[in-house]
DUF222 domain-containing protein (Blastococcus goldschmidtiae), 707 residues
Amino acid sequence: MFDTASLPGAPAGAPSVGWASGPLGAVQAAEREISKQTAIRARAVAEFAATRPAWADRPAGTPGAMSAERRAARPEVLAEVSEWAAHELAVALSRTTTAAENLLERSLTLVHRLPRTLVALECGVIHDGHLWHLLEKVGPIPDLTTRARVEQEVLDWVVGRSVTTPPQLAGKVRRSVLRHDAEAAAQRLLTALRKRGVSVRPDQREGMAVFEALLALPEAQALLDALGQYADAIDEPGDTRSRGQKMADCLLDLVLRPGEHDHAAVQARLTLVAGVPTLAGGAAPGEIGGEPVPAEMVRALARALGLLPGAPSSPPAASFPAHDLSPDEPPVETWTAAMRSADERWWAEVEARALRGDWGGADDPPPDELERWWALESARDQLSRTAPPVAPPIAPPPTGQAAPTAPPPTGRAQPGRAPTTPPAPESALPAPPSPGSSATTLPSPDSAPTPPVGDGPDDEASPAPGTGSWADADRAVDEAGAILLDLQRAMHSAGRAVDGARRADADDVEAWQDSAAGRPSTAASTLDRLHALADEQRQALAHLLDRGAGRGLVDRPRIAVVDELTGALLCLTDSDELRRHATCGARRCRRDPARCDHDLSGRPGLGAPAPTDGYRPGAALDRFVRARDPRCRFPGCRRRVPRGGELDHDRPWPEGPTSAGNLVGYCTGHHRGKHQAPGWRHHLAADGTLTVATPTGLIATTAPPPF
């Protein structure tokens, strides 16, 4: 369970921003009580569901039972719950059956799949609005270890912040899922891409409709940006349309009247953020337009824009061959066919002998008979692969002993061999022997003792063998033993299949870690990742950095140098700046940087751009601040910082400089509030941390989002 002591929002503590006075404090207390009661309700619903098991419903296939299609469509957490539990819940809560089933699914997911989230909800660290993203993105992760890791990482992130809104949590959840569950995320992306399309649905306003287009994230971002630029280009006197209305009219003109408009062509602007492991073929997610996306989508867009050459040099993590252990495919095993066959025959004979009750005793053959049995089985396997299935000659057994033979497993009859007697449960059998052990020899099924023949007058009235109630009872016991044996064999095969799958997964992970994509992905630092790249990958990255604007690019690619521990942005640079800082600055050294062997300790290093003289920041400073603050820095806000403005001086200019340490990005509304809302105080620290104080004394802080 989640350690409640590590949560600053534990029931006995105050909210992370503190308790407000007056009515607002009462609102905070009520919100915490609502979260607590939501957790209590989830536990109670799960407890109720446990009293309504699915096995109490009609079995599948019987009249009135749930159809196979509906059963397959039910969520996994409801598989063991009666289909009528939701109906009972609906009556109790005055809800529709669909709403009751949704509540049942959410509650069971919280209790059984997200226990840490349930405790955080009960402690007031998160509220009901946060649950949707955790239930929809983290709850479905099939692997228990991965799901627990993502859940813990997200909750730790929430605990370390003063304000976390549901959209902010959604972004963190998407990044964590892409990082830890990359293969499944790639499969989900492929499934979603097949559903691309457009649709129309009626709007609640009379006479209006919503036109929706389901597109890949880069396509949607580029489309939105292009429509925005077309709308901004319209500057007609007296035009009272809003920007959104202009974008809608431009969309209609471009699609319905492509030859009747005079709009100038525009270039879509996309911000693509990708780390070295992602560009090298690893599984680390990237960002497009500030939204997390799978690594393969980042590489696909980079190749489409000409940033990366050709196909990826190594397969991504999600493209490794999946070891599907479906019933139609054999399990992955390291045993040879002969070893597997001998093992199965040995177990079949052991089980048959145990059922006959002749296992053990003073008359068992000596241990050397076991070795001879193994040798005969190996010879039979060899002959079966090279000749027709004819029984090989077997040396006569020692005097007084039956020839050791092994019947085949149930359901695998072989020509010329008798079927196996129904076996006994595997728990009553000894462990498989090995050559040279002290185990006893396996007798032939034909050597089973025969019933004694009577010699008295009463024997004539004895029932014939195989008839009577005792014979029926024996047959019933034999049939039950056969069913148990089939079940145990299936369990044995399943266990071997699981072991084989685990070995195959371990081999896949090891192979990926040794691949050109895995080495930079598993390296400890960015420098180690660069060293781990292959020569062709280094050349591709160098070519990417040398690319300038043009050919569909609004700006040239740049390197973000970040702090390894905090992810804070330290500087933005490119290939030209790197070359300038790699030499002493002399002209001959700039022409041939490889031959510059001068002392570079006095040269200026990389860092944030220098302050700008004047009110407007220069191009380099503007680019750096917008990369550091891509979204509004007000606590809880996720709006974009507009490209044309809204970089605010924390200390008004000219009292404060136009520098990275005195500029912060806001959305339009919060920029106005910073200057106009009475009683609010904003303070920007040197490291970029923004502290906001409300008129009622609440304190919230935000830091630039880590790279």
